[in-house]
């Protein structure tokens, strides 16, 4: 049997060991709980956040219209003939002077040869009449010819001269007609519309081709007459073009018409593109805003907004938590698409740029490095290891 003193010592040691085990278990459970909480926290990268800031918000009249080239040419037939060749198709680039369409010139070449022969004959007749006139002048001076004979010779010379001038005019006209059998590009550009094919009969005035200069595109727009006092030449314009997605184009007002349409009561405005922005396609629909006024406002991207009925919210990240904040919004900037904030957020507040439906008010959120930063750091670490 153990002595009473030794038994007490053993019991004390056992109790101490149990106490330490319980404490270790508690510490382990606390650590596991903390890990679980950390795992539940939303991980947010800097790219996921939008910082509220002030920006210049522009406003002004809405302008709608179509994209049209300033330099364009409708090439039409100037003679009646048959189309022999069409050398360019829609979309083909052309240089000034390039041959585009060739017409049948057989009859015109015959006319030209006839006119040249008539000119040659008229020239010979004129030379002969001129020599006779000079002889009669000599004879008249010596008294061997009458005044009537001299006068008749002068009349013949004048008639021959008139015939020669008319013959030369017919020759020039025939040459011009021959040149008109070749339709050439009037400037550098692109064929926008082909209207004839080989074998067609081209009457005078028939459309052959359309050529445009893509570098001269502009917006031919319309504005409401009641906003005309806000528009003047030189104002900035931002607009979107159908077919170019969310891309925003910029330009300046070049001219405002001085008379409104009698039916629509709208005024035409011409808007030039900022250098290098003009699209190469004509006829596209465009809509935008003329920046007639500007003011500083708090702005937020439209993607950061959550709408629930008539109310608008944003998810603010602050002190490691998410907070659902109700906003009062002002006007939308047609140029950038951002909204003005009247109340709900302040300068420097950070919100989730593209919130998802599973976010909860009060949810823990942790800011982590972006994926780009980690990707850039990995090669650097590998290099350092070597």
Describe the structure.
- The structure is a single chain.
- With 386 residues, the chain is of the alpha+beta class.
- The chain is 31% helix and 35% strand.
- It has four helices and 24 strands.
- The strands form six sheets. It has a six-stranded antiparallel beta sheet, with no helix packed on it. The protein has a six-stranded antiparallel barrel with strand order 4-13-16-15-14-17.
- The longest helix has 37 residues, at 4-40.
- The chain is elongated and about 130 Å long.
Quick tags:
single chain; 386 residues; alpha+beta; six-stranded antiparallel beta sheet; 4 helices
Short note summarizing the structure:
Helix content is 31%, strand content 35%.
């Amino acid at each position: 049997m153990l002595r009473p003193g030794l038994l007490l010592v053993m019991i004390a040691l056992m109790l101490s060991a149990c106490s330490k085990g319980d404490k270790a278990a508690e510490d382990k459970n606390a650590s596991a709980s903390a890990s679980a909480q950390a795992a539940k926290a939303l991980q947010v990268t800097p790219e996921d956040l939008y910082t509220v800031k002030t920006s210049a918000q522009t406003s002004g009249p809405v302008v709608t219209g179509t994209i049209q080239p300033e330099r364009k040419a409708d090439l039409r037939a100037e003679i009646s003939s048959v189309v022999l060749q069409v050398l360019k198709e829609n979309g083909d680039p052309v240089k000034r002077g390039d041959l585009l369409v060739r017409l049948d010139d057989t009859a015109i070449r015959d006319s030209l040869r006839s006119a040249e022969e008539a000119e040659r004959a008229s020239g010979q007749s004129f030379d002969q009449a001129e020599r006779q006139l000079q002889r009669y002048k000599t004879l008249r001076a010596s008294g061997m010819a009458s005044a009537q004979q001299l006068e008749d010779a002068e009349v013949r010379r004048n008639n021959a001269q008139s015939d020669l001038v008319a013959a030369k005019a017919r020759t020039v006209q025939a040459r011009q007609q021959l040149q008109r059998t070749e339709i050439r590009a009037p400037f550098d550009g692109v064929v926008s519309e082909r209207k004839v094919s080989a074998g067609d009969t081209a009457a005078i005035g028939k459309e052959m081709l359309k050529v445009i200069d893509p570098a001269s595109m502009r917006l031919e727009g319309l504005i409401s007459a009641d906003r005309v006092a806000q528009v003047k030449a030189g104002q900035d314009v931002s607009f979107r073009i159908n077919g170019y997605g969310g891309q925003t184009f910029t330009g300046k007002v070049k001219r405002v018409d001085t008379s409104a349409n009698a039916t629509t009561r709208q005024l035409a405005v011409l808007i030039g593109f900022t250098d290098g922005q003009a699209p190469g396609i004509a006829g596209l629909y465009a809509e935008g805003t003329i920046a007639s006024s500007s003011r500083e406002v708090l702005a937020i991207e439209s993607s950061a907004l959550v709408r629930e009925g008539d109310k608008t919210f944003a998810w603010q990240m602050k002190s490691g938590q998410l907070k659902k904040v109700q906003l009062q919004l002002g006007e939308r900037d047609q140029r950038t698409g951002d909204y003005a904030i009247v109340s709900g957020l302040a300068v420097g507040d950070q919100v989730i740029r593209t919130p998802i439906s599973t976010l909860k008010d009060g949810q823990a959120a942790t800011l982590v490095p972006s994926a780009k930063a980690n990707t850039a750091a990995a090669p650097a670490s590998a290099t350092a290891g070597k």
